[in-house]
Specification:
Blueprint lengths: L1 H26 L3 E4 L3 E3 L3 E7 L6 E7 L2 E2 L3 E2 L12 E4 L6 E6 L9 E7 L6 E9 L14 E3 L4 E3 L13 E10 L5 E2 L2 E8 L5 E6 L3 E2 L4 E9 L6 E9 L2 E10 L3 H29 L6 H25 L10 H13 L23
Parallel strand pairs: 2-10
Antiparallel strand pairs: 1-3, 3-8, 4-7, 4-9, 5-6, 9-10, 11-13, 12-13, 13-18, 14-17, 15-16, 15-19, 19-20
Helix pairs in contact: 3-4
């Protein structure tokens, strides 16, 4: 009986402990700890993290003009980017990475800033002092203070013209809340677009509206890239000198432009070849047609016959007799048939014509 009573309790305890562990992991937030809180330029520190997404790619930077409460004012422009380090979290969401100490381009207070590079955005800061680096007070907050309350996203789709090199365009959608004590009217945000390892290019975008203290608002800002842009881009949102969010954007290659150039390389040589053939066809001599060839052959035969007849008249020879008359007549018949331009039957001398010379 005792075993039967304790059996349900023994079955429930593992389930309760598993649920507690799962809830604890779900509520875990990214955290960062440092092996040293202060070090000079040229030294090394070890950064440890926990509570991150397993397999996430992180970037570690030493940034100036920053606090864990206000974040990195000025974005990555306030960080020593050349001395940054990248690390990938393990299956438990933790990591350990050694990084060199570098002086940021702006005065301290400084932090070690850890942020995700891809996927869902997450950041964590740890206070750090760069020995020998200048220290200056942070700029004062005026009026309200906006913070992003939800994950940013890019909405919209590319049309058929983008496939042929038109500028890709999207809408950056996010929700902000006013954490200050004064309303924020017509806030001006800065949208930065970065491609690869290059620094972002910033453009101002004004949102018409008012966010009261303790209130929130859904904001949509247009984002547009250059014509023919493709590859991996990073979209950054900045307000009041602080980067509020970063959103990756993978832009496909405009294959229509590539297809156009391929067709152009095929069509232009073909057109030049056809034009060349047409020029050669017009320049070469024309072949003589069969009627013209036969006409020239008849003319040549007529000229040859006339030449032979003229030679026969000029050649001396014996007078023809009666027996030779038929043969000579038959032999001369082909010659007499040809009409000579300088001799006609009317101009031949007649045998009966008498001359008047010597007669009165």
């Amino acid at each position: 009986m005792a075993l039967l009573v304790l059996l349900p309790v023994l079955l429930v305890l593992p389930l309760a402990s598993a649920a507690t562990g799962a809830s604890g992991r779900a509520e875990a937030k990214p955290a960062v700890t440092l092996s040293q809180r202060q070090a000079g330029k040229g030294g090394d520190i070890t950064v440890k993290g926990s509570g991150w997404r397993p397999g996430a790619l992180l970037m570690l930077l030493i940034c100036g003009r920053s606090t864990p409460e206000r974040g990195v004012i000025g974005g990555t422009n306030s960080c020593a980017n050349t001395e940054g380090r990248a690390v990938t979290t393990g299956t438990d969401g933790g990591f350990t990475k050694k990084m060199p100490v570098a002086e940021p381009p702006v005065p301290c207070p400084c932090v070690v800033h850890v942020a995700t590079v891809t996927g869902e955005q997450a950041t964590a800061d740890a206070v750090f002092v760069v020995a020998g680096h200048p220290v200056a007070a942070l700029p004062k907050e005026t009026g309200g203070r906006l913070a992003v309350l939800a994950t940013t996203r890019l909405e919209g789709d590319s049309g058929i013209l983008t496939w042929f090199g038109a500028p890709p365009a999207r809408r950056l959608v996010f929700t902000v809340g006013n954490l200050g004590t004064a309303p924020v009217e017509d806030p001006v945000f800065r949208i930065g677009t970065a491609h690869g390892v290059f620094a972002p290019e910033w453009e101002e975008r004004e949102w018409r509206g008012t966010v009261g203290p303790g209130r929130k608002a859904r904001i949509e800002l247009p984002v547009e890239l250059a014509a023919g842009a493709h590859g991996d881009y990073q979209i950054s949102l900045e307000y009041g000198g602080k980067v509020l969010a970063e959103q990756p954007w993978g832009v496909g290659r405009p294959w229509g432009v590539t297809l156009f150039w391929i067709l152009l390389c095929v069509v232009v040589p073909a057109a030049v070849f056809r034009i060349g053939l047409a020029i050669v066809d017009k320049a070469r001599p024309r072949a003589v047609s069969p009627p013209a060839r036969s006409r020239r052959r008849r003319q040549a035969r007529a000229i040859g016959a006339a030449t032979r007849g003229r030679g026969a008249r000029r050649a001396p020879g014996p007078a023809p007799n009666s027996t030779d008359a038929p043969a000579s007549a038959s032999d001369s018949s082909p010659t007499t048939t040809a009409a000579l331009p300088w001799f006609t039957p009317d101009s031949a001398p007649s045998g009966n014509t008498r001359t008047t010379k010597g007669h009165s």
